[in-house]
């Protein structure tokens, strides 16, 4: 861009206009993956914007994973795809989340079948004696990029035929009136190890998130207990906070 063209003709806060200008330059290949960005000071000189405005635009790009900053060597256009932002306050399915973002969801089966439950499954799913459990284990992909491994356990009567699940588990549950309406989720930090790291395509020890979701029907019956591991570099979980009443 020449001087003065950095902001475009739009309105709105200057840092947002600068940010979208940089995003556009990245999107149309003017700034390719891995390309260095000028130093903040240089951008400020070029554009006549204040350092504060430039820093704010850059910080936004860094927060979104679009730009990476390397200590001592400056800022670069990230060569990793941007993170997926996932809301923590709505109960949606993986497929719905991806479709909403214009990404295509797909799954690779790692296992599915009907089993004798473990003591943990009996407890969490509140199974009656002798009741079986359905386990489905999938690698979830967004636009072919591995995002998470999900291991779900369900009481067999809510999902009598696990082979019915094509891409979306919640779609099948919905069709039989068993879609969960409430869920509790616990998120913890982990280092991805062994097979999980390999399946997700990351180095052993890479950062990940473990998420456990227990989902309920309106009558408070547990429909699903899912333990997932997410790639730490693929997801940002976002929650809206309000003042307590
Ligand atoms: C989400 C849920 C998972 C659920 C799945 C259904 C988390 C951490 N997990 O990935 O518990 O089974 O959605 O998605 O959000 P599906 O309908 O696409 O199979």
Automatic annotation (TrEMBL):
Gene3D superfamilies: Chorismate lyase-like (3.40.1410.10), Winged helix-like DNA-binding domain superfamily/Winged helix DNA-binding domain (1.10.10.10). Keywords: DNA-binding, Transcription, Transcription regulation. InterPro entries: Bact_HTH_transcr_reg (IPR050679), Chorismate_lyase_/UTRA_dom_sf (IPR028978), Tscrpt_reg_HTH_GntR (IPR000524), UTRA (IPR011663), WH-like_DNA-bd_sf (IPR036388), WH_DNA-bd_sf (IPR036390). Pfam families: GntR (PF00392), UTRA (PF07702). It comes from the Bacteria. Residues 12-80 form the HTH gntR-type domain. CDD domains: WHTH_GntR. Coiled coil: none annotated. PANTHER family: MANNOSYL-D-GLYCERATE TRANSPORT/METABOLISM SYSTEM REPRESSOR MNGR-RELATED, MANNOSYL-D-GLYCERATE TRANSPORT_METABOLISM SYSTEM REPRESSOR MNGR-RELATED. This is GntR family transcriptional regulator.
């Amino acid at each position: 861009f020449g001087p003065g063209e950095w902001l475009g003709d739009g309105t709105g806060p200057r840092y947002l206009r600068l940010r979208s200008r940089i995003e556009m330059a990245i999107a149309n290949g003017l700034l390719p993956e891995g390309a260095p960005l000028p130093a903040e000071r240089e951008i400020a000189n070029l554009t006549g914007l204040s350092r504060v405005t430039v820093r704010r635009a850059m910080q936004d790009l860094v927060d979104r994973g679009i730009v990476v900053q390397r200590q001592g060597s400056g800022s670069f256009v990230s060569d990793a795809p941007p993170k997926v932002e996932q809301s923590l306050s709505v109960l949606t399915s993986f497929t719905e989340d991806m479709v909403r973002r214009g990404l295509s969801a797909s799954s690779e089966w790692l296992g599915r079948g009907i089993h004798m439950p473990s003591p943990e499954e009996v407890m969490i799913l509140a199974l009656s004696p002798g009741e079986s459990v359905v386990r489905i284990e999938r690698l979830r992909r967004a636009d072919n990029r591995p995002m998470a491994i999900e291991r779900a356990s369900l009481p067999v009567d809510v999902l009598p035929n696990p082979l019915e699940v094509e891409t979306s588990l919640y779609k099948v549950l919905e069709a039989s009136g068993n879609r969960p309406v409430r869920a509790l989720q616990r998120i913890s930090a982990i280092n991805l190890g062994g097979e999980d790291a390999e399946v997700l395509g990351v180095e052993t020890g890479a950062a990940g998130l473990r998420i456990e979701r227990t989902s309920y029907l309106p009558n408070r019956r547990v429909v699903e207990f899912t333990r997932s591991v997410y790639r730490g570099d693929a997801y940002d979980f976002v929650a809206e906070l309000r003042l307590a009443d």
